[in-house]
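User: For my dataset I need records formatted as: sequence, then structure tokens, nothing else. Please produce one.
Assistant:
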Amino acid sequence: MYIRRIFPVLAVLKWTRRHIFLFLFLALIPVFLFDVLGLKWLHIPWLPLGVLGTAVAFIVSFKNNASYDRLWEARKIWGGIVNASRSWTIMVKDFVNNDHAKESLSQGELSLVHRELVHRHVAWLTALRYQLRKDKPWEMHLKSKRSNIEFRAAKFRVCEDEIPIEEAIKPYISEEESKELFAKGNQASQILGIQSKRLKELMNQGLIEDFRHMEMANMLVEFYTLQGKSERIKNFPYPRQFATLNYLFVWIFIILLPFGIMEGFESIGDHILEDLAIHESQTSLGHLVQEFIAKHFVWFSIPFSALISWVFHTMEAIGENTENPFEGGPNDIPITDMSRGIEIDIRQLIDDTDIPEPYVWKNDIVM
């Protein structure tokens, strides 16, 4: 997530520079054939191309709206995780006590139980964000693009790619729980299962009475619900049929665009020649330069064609890079930073020690 008010334009231009050169080349070919080789018939009427461009604009906007909806839903889910984590910690702190205990624990022993439950919750947050950062088949092409690889290496870091999940979770759970965890598939779900089993043990010891146990169990159900919502977005992509056709339609428009705007620029050049014909002096340097420009005014269609192509393609690319809000890109939901923020918050609530510092991110991109 970029946190400044305006995304740097130079970074966007650098990110899309290869396509800009391609658009200039695609616009150059028909103009060369039209003006140099004299193939004056080589153009497309603007009316059907304008209709196509309008349709493509609607399709691109539809995809971008859908991508934003996926992004915003993911943010709401993780906002729910933030709030539920704080509620869980308050329950742990206030509900787990000696009021109904069969054998009372000392304050230090109770603090260790609180710490255990809260740390295991941090382990759940860690496991969940690692699962959400795993690559899916429909995400791989984005990470393999050269422009994305360069931008990633220069502008931001993804902690989940640098630190193995086993190492990240190790400080928060016991060795036995770690072995049980990684012997199975969905680590986040397994952690909540271990947490539920531990609550039952505490209830049997009288450290949690029935009503409080039910409330804390309901909170675990809420965590499962939020996890399932995150997995729904992660595991179900923006429909590939829409994404593929959207990509094809944009490129069809980009390829045809130079053939459609050449005639318009040629007409502008003809009007300039008509105006120049009434000049008193037609041998001056200024007149000759203007006449040369007018005769070859069609070449000005190249930068305008490249500009329009760049706008359409960049908007399509932004939608494509936004549709997966957990993949580890600069436009994603900052689940790593949010997880660290939750950890600091809930560990301070139980007066824990050795609380980590917030992450320090570079280039104003928070992950």
